[in-house]
Amino acid sequence: MNSFSFEQIGDDSEFPDFPPYEMNGGSIVAIAGKKFVVIAADMFLSSAYTDPPKLFKLASRTVLGSTGSWGDTRAITRLLDMHIQIYELTHLRRIPADEVALMLHKIMYNCRFLPYGITNVVAGMEKSGKGAIFSYDPVGNYKREIYCARGGAEPWLQVELESKIGLANLDTFRTKLTKDEAVSAALESFIAASKTIHIGNSIAINVITKNGVEAKQVVLRKS
Q: DSSP per residue over 96-160, as a string?
């Protein structure tokens, strides 16, 4: 029998590097109120000629915002959809946003050694009926926030949110934000950042309440 050695394969330099991710861009803004949540995302995908969604309705009152690698986004939304169906069939009740957030944490953390190349935000209504948003790092660690921006245009969007909601320039904070004010803040943040290359031509806005999810689309500019 002929012996085998790794020297027969050749040097590693003979093989080109394999990039595990293709980052397709996208940006998200989310704002939580007492009895509502507003989440918005631009319709932008690099390396493609279409404007795929960045917001995915996972449950009756829960939406996932996901940007980055489009392949990983598709994979994780399908996994979440499967686990949510199992949860609701097992417990015979609708899954709240905080349970979806924990579920996503477990899925992402299990792949921490080769993490998903995406940025996620879960938005929806908690068991208590309050609006909640949860933002994630690449390995699945997450925290609850009142407002946040994620994705390629995060530096520009976060500054706008700090100015309009955090009121960082006034050393105070807006605790009583109406639904219409939150929608306007999200839209104005995208308008302010629309001159960057990270924002697409239109945005999708989802308003989540106890009655469900209301979706609409706004055109920022025409190409």
A: PHHHHHHHHHHHHHTTTTS--SEEEEEEEE-TTS-EEEEEE-TTS-EEEESEEEEETTHHHHHHH
Fold of 23-219: Glutamine Phosphoribosylpyrophosphate, subunit 1, domain 1 (3.60.20)
- Enumerate the domain spans of the chain: 23-219
Do the beta carbons of residue 146 and residue 31 sit within 8 Å? yes
Give the 3-state secondary structure of residue 38.
strand
In whole angstroms, give the CA distance from residue 76 to residue 216: 24
Q: How large is the average pLDDT for residues 84-110? A: 95
Tokens of 182: 């939150």
Assess contact for 44 and 51: CB atoms under 8 A. Answer: yes
pLDDT in tens, 5-64: 545 445 555 545 656 667 778 899 999 998 999 999 998 765 554 567 899 999 999 999
